[in-house]
Amino acid sequence: MAAESEIVFEDFFPAMVEKLGAEGFMKELSNGFRLLMDVNKGMITFESLKRNMALLGLQDMGDEDVVCMLREGDLDGDGALDEMEFCTLMFRLSPALMNSSRTLLVEALANEM
Fold first, then answer.
1. pLDDT category, 101, cuts 50, 70, 90?
2. Cα radius of gyration (the chain)
């Protein structure tokens, strides 16, 4: 059993992809990004993530943990997450999606053509 302060991540992404398809899933990730982003900056910042932590059920998370979450996905080192960084992070957090990412890519490309 997980300790009270431990965050337990259950990977629902594969089920979402199965239900929504690759394109629908990417739209949902984009919706999640917009929900968490700072509307003036168009990015997820420390402040916007901290302000929206309750939406994720993480309202008791400390500032240091929020900074660590941002650093985990911040590929360009600007201290915030753009939409591509956010989507990349979500894929990295889902082991099952990482394993099936080639299939998702092929499906997404087929939908584009």
1. low
2. 15
Which of 18, 16, 14, 23 has the alpha carbon at shortest distance from 112? 23
What tokens does 23 get? 């394109």
SS3 state of residue 60: coil
For the record, the structure tokens of 45 come out as: 């910042």
Q: Are 6 and 61 in contact (CB under 8 A)?
A: no
Do 35 and 55 form a contact (C-beta atoms < 8 A)? yes
- Backbone φ and ψ for 13, nearest 5 degrees, come out as -60, -45
Query: Residue 4 phi/psi, 5° resolution?
Result: -60, -40
- And the tokens for 69? 């979450």
Q: What's the gap between Cα 74 and its chain centre?
A: 12
DSSP label at residue 32:
H
39-95 pLDDT, tens digit each? 999 999 999 999 998 888 888 889 999 999 899 999 999 999 999 999 888 878 776
Q: Around 8, how many Cα atoms within 13 Å sit in the side-chain half-sphere?
A: 5
